[in-house]
Amino acid sequence: MVRPVVDTELCTGCGTCESLCPDVFEVGDDDKSHVINEEGCNGCDCQEAVDSCPEGAISLVE
Ligand code: SF4
Predict the structure, then answer these.
(1) Of 26, 27, 52, 62, which has the most beta carbons under 10 Å away?
(2) 52 touches 24 (CB < 8 A)
(3) Which residue segment(s) compose the domain that 24 sits in?
(4) How far is the CA of 13 from the centre of ligand 1 (A)?
């Protein structure tokens, strides 16, 4: 199973990933996206979030 990881050094908190996969990503008070449910990726296409992140901050790891 793949799980998503956010590089918070790169993330600008734009919210695109949260919009695409709200079960998986949440932009916190620190204006960084955080993975709130790794297994939420099974119910959506996190690859789209990876491809849509303007900073290239999201990775899918095995
Ligand atoms: S799409 Fe990328 S830059 Fe935007 S909030 Fe998500 S991880 Fe951060």
Answers:
(1) 27
(2) no
(3) 3-61
(4) 5
